Automatic annotation (TrEMBL):
Belongs to the universal stress protein A family. It holds the Pfam family Usp. It comes from the Bacteria. Gene3D superfamilies: 3.40.50.12370. It comes from Salinicola socius. SUPFAM superfamilies: Adenine nucleotide alpha hydrolases-like (SSF52402). This is UspA domain-containing protein. Residues 3-119 form the UspA domain.
Length: 151
């Protein structure tokens, strides 16, 4: 039983496939959904921060507003609102932030979408698998599972 599911959301069609799959599980098992959008740090002319690896950008109001709007737009596209959904916008490295939120929220599962054409998807998923103790389901744009990992 999946009582809570974390769904990392980006701008790609595979994110919507992951959301549809999670919604199906949530409707059947009455799960709480957490939609997460990660804003990765970007360099803003901070040479010292870039050289040392220190964060060069934190979330500002525009980042939060854009992230919130993105999550709400994906959710509204399903056209089937549910009360048990939370929108989260965080900053950080994608895999680390997903794993951190999964631990913080104590979710039972992470369902994420990916495209095999996306560079680095195996590395990101590998890092998440190693960093979390919850069920991980990765789906493609057609909503077919390409990986399921149960620790």
């Amino acid at each position: 039983m999946q009582n809570s599911i974390l769904i990392p959301m980006g701008k790609n069609p595979a994110s919507m496939a992951a959301l549809r799959k999670a919604r199906g599980i949530a409707q059947h098992e009455h799960s709480r959904l957490y939609l997460l959008h990660v804003v990765e740090p970007r360099e803003k002319g901070d040479v010292l921060g870039a050289a040392t690896g220190a964060p060069t950008h934190g979330l500002d109001r525009e980042d939060l507003a854009r992230g919130q709007a993105l999550l709400e737009a994906w959710w509204e596209r399903l056209n089937e609102p549910m009360a048990a959904v939370n929108f989260l916008v965080r900053d950080g490295k994608l895999s680390e932030t997903i794993a951190e939120e999964a631990r913080r929220l104590a979710v039972d599962a992470i369902i994420m979408g990916t495209s095999r054409r996306s560079p680095g998807w195996k590395g990101t998923i590998g890092e998440i698998k190693q960093s979390t103790s919850c069920h991980l389901i990765v789906v493609n744009e057609e909503e077919k599972s390409v990986l399921e990992h149960a620790p």
